[in-house]
Amino acid sequence: MRKLLVAATVAVAVMVLGSAGGARAAERESPRWPTLREQMQRDRVERGTELEKLISENQDFTLLDPREAEDRLGVPLWLRVHWRKAHPELRYDFRDPTHGYPLVLKEVAEWMKTHPNFDQSRVEPELETKTYAAGANVRLSGAQSNPRSESDIRVNYWNTSKVIGASNNIGGSGQQAQWFSSDGGASWSQSSLPLASGDSFHSDPTVDWTSDGTAWSTTIGINSAGTVLKMRAYRSTDGGATWTLDNTFSGTQSSADKQMMWTDHSASSSFKDSIYAIWHNGNPVFFNRRRAGSWLASPVQISGSETTGTGIGADVKTNSAGEVFAMWPDTGSSKLYLTKSTDGGGTWGARTTVATTFDSFDIGVPSFNNRRMLIYVAVGTYKAGTKNNVYTVWNDLSGASGCTAPANEPGSSTTSSCKSRIWFARSTDGGATWGAKVKINDQSGLNDQFNPWLAVDETNGKIAVMYYDTVNDAGRKKVDVYYQSSSNDGSTWSTPLKVTTATTDETAAGADSGNQ
Fold first, then answer.
1. Which residues contact 349 (CB under 8 A, 6 or more apart)?
2. ∠ CA 10-14-18 to the nearest 5 degrees?
3. Which site among 35, 114, 409, 462 is 20 to 30 Å from 442 CA-CA?
């Protein structure tokens, strides 16, 4: 009898556990997708607009991975459905932190929300030219009613009184805003890029100069449906006042995302004034170049089987000999890769591993938990005499105990012992091998550092790095911009210099919608 009772008890327990497990499995398989009304209310969509119609037409969430219902990617679900319909050829893998979507879809969503009828009706106010004292913080954009984001700036290497800059203007006209100065940054004027045929707005600005005084800028040209992403190059022969479309250097690609550009400035280079661009289309990394007045007819894929995820966040630079260095993070292997060309981008060498990252793709910290800090690379080079150095910086978890994996990231927790830091790595043999990665400023407090960029003075090799840091806010949400430099090839770094005169709360109401 006892055996029968035990057997019955076990059978009941198995049924109960099996029922609970089945319920949990069914819950996983049948996620709770937001209702159409909830989506409309969350995005404050006006009735009768084209945006309302688009959202209503893209509710087939069976096209998505069930786990996307509760992920932290930041791209609206209806826009993911819309994108997948337009691009069934791409690979959508939930194991990849990007899930296979271009990051610029965040800007697409912002443009659609601020232009609910998908038009370009907004007109920008004129920028009043002002003169500022040296050392003061300068508001290049003047008083604007819409936020600017993802800025780039470049001093003319051959004439340092000339400076060009650019930024997104998603909520305004949508046309990329361009800033230009002819007096070393004391005063500024504003223009914008014209829209190429088929484009409704721009995103992801970059700028540079060639030795003839021409200013250059690249951007992503995006159609009103947000389904076509093309790389556009523009040029200005009057210092940035007016701009002309030069080329669509992504060729026939329509999923091109997150580009960077660079001009070969070296008088000793056989490829001086060549313009190089790098980006990703889907998962792979692509490259194109402009030389002698023309771009390659088709972009070249420079990543290979080593890049198992998405090669998003690449950079490209040259040294004094004209050698081209292309580097990118891989969201699949959590590694940084480099490939080098010694013939101006005609052929490329083997892809080498620069470093391994603790996290992958992006990291949530209290001051940047909505937009999330992205693990991108910034590259610099210096070749002179016996030196043949290549440098890179990126942001990542600190690597301390309990802060070595994506699951450790602090997110919104201001008390988390995990924090982010700026990492640096160096090669002294032209990129063939790399030394151990190091942190350039590892404070003891619970502050976060992110959004770094690196530049190398091409005349003397001095390295400069700038980044955001919450070190002045015990609440871990207000940021300042800091600058550090190295005059000994990155062996030691200067004391951090605070550039900003006031902190910025990236989470405050009225900040950019993406906490940019």
1. 339, 340, 341, 342
2. 175
3. 462
Which residues are 190's β-sheet partners? 179
As a whole number of angstroms, the distance between CA 337 and CA 462 comes to: 24
Distance CA 294, CA 278 (A): 16
Q: Which of 193, 241, 190 is nearest to 213 (CA)?
A: 241
Cα separation, 397 vs 404, whole angstroms: 6
Residues 300 and 295: their CA atoms lie apart, in Å, by 11
Q: Mean pLDDT in runs of 10 for the chain (516 residues)?
A: 38 40 49 94 92 97 96 94 97 95 95 91 52 60 85 96 96 95 93 98 98 98 98 98 98 98 97 98 98 97 98 98 98 98 98 98 94 95 97 98 98 97 98 98 97 97 98 96 96 95 83 53
What are the tokens at 34?
């937001």
3-state secondary structure of 17: helix
Kind and range of the H or E run holding 497: strand 497-498
> Do 378 and 315 contact (CB within 8 A), yes or no?
yes
CA angle, 271 then 277 then 281, to 5°: 145
Q: What's this model's pTM, rounded to 2 decimal places?
A: 0.90
How far from the centroid of its chain's Cα atoms is residue 364's Cα?
15
Q: C-alpha angle with apex 507: 451 to 258, nearest 5 degrees?
A: 35
Judging by DSSP bridges, how do beta strands 373-374 and 362-363 pair with one another? antiparallel
Q: How far apart (Å, rounded) are the C-alpha atoms in residues 284 and 274? A: 23
Q: CA–CA separation, 83 vs 99, rounded Å?
A: 12
What is the rounded CA–CA span in Å between residue 152 and residue 218?
A: 11
Contact assessment for residue 80 and residue 66, using Cβ atoms and an 8 Å cutoff? no
